Amino acid sequence: MPEPSGNDHSNTNLYMRLQQSQLVRTNIQNISQFLNTGLSPETLDICVKLLEAGVHPQSLSEAVIQIRNEMAALNNGQSGE
Predict the structure, then answer these.
(1) The domain containing residue 36 runs over which residues?
(2) Integer Cα distance of 57 and 61 in angstroms
(3) CA-to-CA distance for 60 and 55, rounded, in angstroms?
(4) Looking at the 3D structure of the chain, how many domains does it have?
(5) Against a cut of 0.90, is the pTM above it?
């Protein structure tokens, strides 16, 4: 059975949203690289999703910095052994 014509419009909208989402994601990754944030694409995606979910940007920034500092301390401790 053929699908209703309304579904074609819905599929087109979904495709357009995915294309726009991919373009936005690419632009955010380019900005991140330009600013030398050191965030991987996966980490950047997680941060964007957290921001979209309502996490306060300053709090997220502070958490990322704290995690980086703790990871650096762990790495320095391991290399000094």
Answers:
(1) 15-78
(2) 6
(3) 7
(4) 1
(5) no
